[in-house]
Amino acid sequence: MDLMDILKSQLSSTVMDQLTKQIGASNQQQTSQAADGILEVLLGGIAKNAQKDDGLSGLSNALEKDHDGSILDNLEDILGGRNIQPQQKRALNGSGIVKHILGGNAGNMIEMISKMSGLNGQQSGSLMEKLAPIVLGTLGKQKRQNNLDMGGLGELLGGVAKQQQQRTQKSPIGGLLKGFLDQDGDGKIIDDVAGMLGRFLRK
User: Fold this and answer.
1) What is the C-alpha to C-alpha distance for residues 45 and 178, in angstroms, rounded to an integer?
2) What is the Cα Rg of the chain in Å?
């Protein structure tokens, strides 16, 4: 099971229904389509950042300190704003996590997710902020459960690009979104890529 599959396993039908209602989406299918794209983008962004100087050590420290995966133990309550422990507040700072992972690309990515799924920008942005802590929490849980050192974490993230390439053989979503993430953030290819995704999803 790759990281994307592990992430999706956290998003039960109940959780997806909860997220759909919270962001005001028309239906769960819209939320699910947007979530798939968002998870791909965040995973790709984390893997890309880990390749930078001190990126991997910074991520490893953040997972140790703030993202140990404990939020996944009562995800439905946490998404509903219930039973949040004081030490979990930093782990739930979705807007901060998104900004750190995507930087100046965040707005462009939210726009493309919107075009892909039919959600509006506010809904896509809200969903991204709700999913970002789940992504880091899942990584933290994998690190803790498998006792991964920095080398092991790097190997885990190194598989992300390969896994995304494998998924593009079945669907263009992962590769196109990752390809966009690799751009300079000028937003010029948003319409082309989103159009391709839209045609695929409507089949």
Assistant:
1) 8
2) 16
Record the pTM. Answer: 0.84
Of the candidates 173, 170, 76, the residue with the CA atom closest to the CA atom of residue 117: 173
24-61 in b/e form (b: 16+ CB < 10 A) is: ebeeeebbbbbbbbbbbbbbbbbbbbbeeeebbeebbe
Q: What is the pLDDT of residue 59?
A: 92
Contact 47, 177 (CB under 8 A): no
- Tens digit of pLDDT for each residue in 32-43? 999 988 998 898
The pLDDT assigned to 197 comes to: 54
Cα-based angle 55, 10, 122 (whole degrees, multiple of 5) = 75
How many residues make up the chain in this entry?
203
Residue with tokens 């422990």: 85
Q: What is the mean pLDDT of the chain?
A: 83
Q: 16 is written with which tokens?
A: 């997806």
- CA of 26: how far to CAs of 20, 82, 152, in Å? 8, 25, 41
Q: Provide the 8-state DSSP code for 73.
A: G
How far is 179 from 88, CA to CA, in rounded Å?
A: 33
* pLDDT of 159: 78
Phi and psi angles of residue 66, each rounded to the nearest 5 degrees, phi first = -120, -20
User: Do the Cβ atoms of 134 and 10 come closer than 8 Å?
Assistant: yes
Q: pLDDT tens, 188-203?
A: 545 555 555 555 555 4
